[in-house]
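Example with several molecule types.
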Amino acid sequence: MERTKFYVTTPIYYVNDKPHIGHAYTTIVADVLSRYHRLLDVPTYFLTGTDEHGQKVQKAADAAGITPQQQADSTVVRFQQLWKKLKITNDDFIRTTEERHKKVVQAILQDLYDRDEIYRAEYDGWYCVPDERFFMEKDLVDGKCPECHRPVEKIKEANYFFRMGKYQEWLIQYINEHPKFIQPDHRRNETLGFLRKPLNDLCISRPKSRMAWGIDLPFDKDYVCYVWFDALVNYISAVGYRSDDLKFNKWWPASYHLIGKDILTTHTVYWPTMLKAMGVEMPETIFAHGWWLIGESKMSKSLGNVINPMDMIEKYGVDAFRYFVTAEMTLGQDASFSEDAFVRRYNADLANDLGNLLSRVLNMTVRYCGGKIPEPPADVLSGADEKAMWEAVQSAVQGMEKSVDDMRISEGLGQVIAAVRGINRYLEIKQPWTLAKQEDKAPLRATLYTAAEALRVAAALLFPVMPEKMSELRKALGIQKPKPDQAQLREWGILAAGTPIAEVGGLFPRIVAEEPKPGEQLELGAQPVKPKPAPTPAAKAETPVGVTELIDYSDFSKVQMRTARVVAAEKVEGATKLLKLQVMMGEEKRQIVAGIALYYEPEKLVGRTVVVVANLKPATIRGVESQGMLLAASKGESLRLVSIDGDLSSGAVVK
Ligand code: MSP
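Resulting structure tokens for the full complex:
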């Protein structure tokens, strides 16, 4: 869709508790959409913020023994810090306790009251305390709240009501005439289903005697505004409604209100009827995404399964986290979160496909082209493979654009990763390592240049999801500008021949399992930790299958190996395959965790001389520090430790 501007919002989050993965998800999706639109040069405005009034916040404050404002002030920081950490590029952050917002809410209330859209009435009915919602007798299900199924309280009090019911027919018609208004389709049907029952007027006040934490009703100081009526207004108060017409007209109507499915009714029934009463245009699309489940269950504090995004970022990095959540969840459906799924997707898409492609391109450019982007032959794109390669990448460009339009980001990402796999395949077919041996170097230069160009475009498409890593990747390819621009997505030949490529460390080091598998050399020692980078599988494609990659002596000499004598050994508690060894390396004592418990009794190791990689960075395996790695030989299910032929004091250098 050709857009002239893009305005996206997230729900504003309650400040009763710290953020979790659900909050992070909506915000990351909004960020990814914003970054894509900016990439396409569409003027973009991205709003997020916090919902600071109401009973939930009041309760949390009471429990902490602080005022609700203090509760809000201390919790809002956690959201702001998380967004900073997650590289969220919101243009504004609105807090509903800010004056700029309160003023607008009060102006709206007064206006609606003056025009009899809001009236006072005696209310006698049922109230769900946790949901802060009123229900008629007929709405209850088995005498309980129809939404959360918890017990309800009988309530009798005077309140103020918004004449929502009178907009029912209008709303049904509007939804039917605007199929994009509520997305995905099944959510539209859900709202239409809800609207089959008579729509009641909405109670928009709370007597201060019961709940005082809110915005004062301008026409009755004994009441505060119902938190949802206040909160929804943020989407217009932040962009200048009743305060800055120029700004408001620039950004409103919103292109997307992104929400979770839990807040569908408030956004697709309350909000449109409120806007209608105010005489404000409808937002284009309210898009409800699904829930992150933990396994099959809902995340909840009581189950203790709440995922803290900060932990995931600490462990795996910001970009990997952003990639996982956007690639894993089909927008609109529920998705299950597990660390296993995270590691699997990371290793498959990022370490194997993308990381490996980059290291192949860089390694071969260094080895065969003096570390500079090679000059491609002028007619490079007339080669059938090159043409096909470029076309495949261009179709990923189109695919990504369409997926963003259709809110199918995960599909778009799937297409980009498939293109990356295609580039890897292209290299395997072209075999640059064989081409390098030919007299005529043109085919080699054509191949490496094509692969690098295709990778440049794939990286640009992934930039909105992984801004940091893709900037690094661009730098590695010798591109000065950290951000891609849209014209260059479709343009061939952006990489300038002769540009030196840059060193980057493994962009996406493979994550290795915490517990070693039998016979896996890599996991013998200190490496597999707190999921940590294992060396990226050495650039596979440069050498034909079956031929070991050759390294320089200088590479080998970086590894310091020494003999050591085992002085104590025991099992690591809770890990079937791990032993903890104390070894003496000359005068130096070291502790080493090794995955050899299935092959060696601990007591039989004491007194043996083993060979240790002595200059490996220490790592923590299952909570135990490991200060080196044992050498062993393994084949199939067998594993034997490397030992010394004859006597030699411990600490001897192995070369
Ligand atoms: N304050 C209201 C929203 C007002 S908007 C005008 C609110 N806040 S909330 O803190 O409870 O956050 C709700 C939003 O967080 C959900 O709509 C959704 O965006 C996100 N999620 C909360 N838990 C979630 C999951 N388990 N999975 C995915 N997202 C969910 O409701």
